[in-house]
Amino acid sequence: MITKTIRNDSSANRAIQVLVVEDERVVARDLQDCLTSLGYSVPAIASSGAEAIERASQLRPDLVLMDIRLQGEMDGIQAAERIWNHLHIPIIYSTGYSDPHTLNRAKTTAPFGYILKPVEERELYVAIETALQRFQLETALQQREQWLTRILSQMGDGIIVVDTQGSVKFLNLTAEALTGWRQEDALGRPVSDIFQLVHEPTTLLPNSAVEALRTGTRVYLTDKTVLVSKTGTPIPISDSAVPFRDDTGVINGVMLVFREVAEQRLTDGIGRQILNGMSFEHCDRQRLEAALHASEAKFRRLVNANFMGVFVANVQGIVEANDVFLEMLHYTQADLAAGKIRWQDMAPEAYINLDQPDLPAIEVSGDLTPFEKEYIRKDGSRVLLLMGVALLEPSPLTWVCFVVDLTERKQLAVEREKLLQQEQYAREQAEASHRIKDEIFGMLSHELRTPLTPILGFSQLLRTVQLNPKDTHQALDTIERSANLQVQLIKDLLDSSDLWYGKIVLNAHPINLVTVLEAALATVRLSVEAKSIQLHTFLDATGVQVIGDPARLQQVLWHLLANAVKFTPAGGRVEVRLEPLGSFAQIQIKDTGKGISPDFLPFVFEHFRQADSSTTRKFGGLGLGLSLSRHLIELHGGTIQVASPGEGLGTTLTVQLPLQSLMILNQ
Q1: pTM (2 decimals)?
Q2: Torsion, CA 478, CA 484, CA 487, CA 489, rounded to 10
């Protein structure tokens, strides 16, 4: 048995733990056995919603298999909601109910899958593996989003994200400090309330975020723009508002990036030149130099912290880079020091002239809208990167790039889409399976009631009315025939169950197939005569010897002959042929009846399958005869096949069984 394992950062490989929540003891044990055989661990079985929550809190399983209909005050949906909200453990529902009200309630808990009872091992395995992988992917995406949020929060520039309605969705720490608004207070408010701009000295300016949403283009502030904070403090700033779009080009919102102008002047190269060329008091000079060194130290820590790829470049090439960026392209610090990292080596040939950032735009605005770019690694492979560019010094023109590797995110997105498609397919298959089960139960109820109607009717008639001998004999014949039909239906159901659980035992010994076939023909002869069907038999006169259970083989042949007679119209023809064929005995039953459509042929031998519902009503039966016949023939080491040119063109059933000599040799 292959054990399924799960890996995380805090523990070594271990078997995946599945908490089973089921109030039916027998079903719970079956689920436990099934899970164990698949290699999963079942640390506990809970029989109520309250116990499920308690067990999940104590054991912290990897997944919960939850029955929806639980006894007690709390059902499975309520228990699943609490487990997910408080423990964040994925849930798969296991239920025999699929009514719209139950499904709508279950959907509100965001489950990771559904399994309809009775549970099949293959469906259970697919549902669990799909749920666990989906949970891991969503967790990874959530952690990556949190990581990016932390990076944005620590940026030195103020950042405000606005949705298409102009409402604030995010503020980083710098934006909070400059605007005077805390993020929790600003979320959902109009951006014009948070980010108020005026032109020195008092002229009110249009909000740059609103303008970017309106025009769909980048918007820059004019010189001498002042941000009025929540406390009324005027702060000179420079900023840009950039709309961001989805894959189809539709605007999803705007990102505001702004900074205090005074701080910028002290931290760029021009500020250093002004500082060196002006006369200050000694204390002021020390204070400004300290501020400059502190700003440079913060930038250095950001580069060396290796949260993301960072490199500094000019028109000649990359002059400095951290280890994260170099690892993305499979280079080293030694390669950088030796001058081996060049624009022409990194850019794909088709984009060699477009590889360097938009230099005029950087000079004018100080930054560029983040963009995706494909680069060539040292080994020739390619990697997709997300890059943001900001100006460092205007002379010589130098810029800094912040880089994120999108490879994993793209792969996660593709895998997630694949998993969603698989889950949708599995759900559609489960719904189709459930519809078939509903049809089966309806058909089963109808077929079991049908023989009872004449039995009850004629029984009451015989009790209440004094019939003449002829009518009495006819009534008793009808009762007997209906009772035999009921017995046969129940026998088929029991045989089907025994075959499913492998309980059928053959009483095999050498037999003559001619004798068995003639006995089966005798049971359908009255039906043949009643419909005036021409029955032609071609039986090998020397006899055909096989090793088998005569009762079971007669049962198979009766099913096949009864089907041929039932679906052949009055006056039709049924041909039965028995002959040795190589090392096998071949029985072929050919009729001129209803035939089978090509679409239904692959499903002929499945349990409870019939061509359509009208067939069930017109001809009756449970759809078990051919399925039982196939299993019984296979138990004898033989095969059974069906062929039909199409509807209305008849059907041919062919059975092959090993001859007695071959069976003895095999044994």
Answers
A1: 0.36
A2: -80
